[in-house]
Amino acid sequence: MIKINFTIVLLLVVISLKLHAQCDIKNRVLPDGTMTYYFDPADFYTTKSKSLKINIVTDKEHFFIALQPSPFPAKKDGKKIKEDLIIHLADKKVYKLTHYDTQYRDNDSVMQVLYLIDQKDIEAFAKFDAVVAEINMEGTEFVRNYDFKLHKDAIVKQLACFLKKEDK
Questions:
Q1: What is the dihedral of CA 58, 105, 101, 94, to 10 degrees?
Q2: What is the dihedral of CA 44, 75, 144, 130, to 10 degrees?
Q3: Which of 85, 99, 132, 160 is the most buried (most CB within 10 A)?
Q4: CA distances from 120 to 66, 100, 115 (A)
Q5: pLDDT tens, residue by residue, 118-166
Q6: What is the pLDDT of residues 56-93, one digit of tens each?
């Protein structure tokens, strides 16, 4: 009987640790002194020729979707990416996110494009999985469409973690 109780307690501890680990929020101080909070990017799309990683970034006031497309253009071409992101959610609606910034991180080995989620759309992004993203890759090709195959619910899960933290 004691072994069964111990096993149940151990199992509950392991489950709670896994649930807590899903909200592994990281932070970074930007050069201007702003603190940003983010998750490790999740794979949304992968083929032999291209991939797309995505994560939520926030400064606790605004929420951004950060995209890391691969292959990405050279820095001089990448800085031309200024178009907004079109994203389709599972609610069958299309959302337009405003381009915020294009960054090359880790000594130019990673390109990240930030798009601002409109405050009125936060609720939809927190409820519905992402289905398709349309990215205008100025300077390399016209529009790249990504039909999400992996981790469609990553935005929902990440926003839930941030919104839960804000409620506390």
A1: -70
A2: 30
A3: 85
A4: 19, 17, 15
A5: 999 999 999 999 999 888 766 555 677 777 777 889 999 999 999 886 6
A6: 999 999 999 999 988 887 777 777 788 899 999 999 99
CA distances from 100 to 32, 45, 103, 162 (A): 16, 22, 10, 20
pTM: 0.79
Q: Hey, which residues does 64 pair with through a beta bridge?
A: 57, 116
How many CB atoms lie under 10 A from the CB of residue 124?
15
Length of the chain in terms of residues written? 168
For residue 27, give both structure tokens: 């932070």
- Strand 42-46 relative to strand 94-105: parallel, antiparallel, unpaired? unpaired
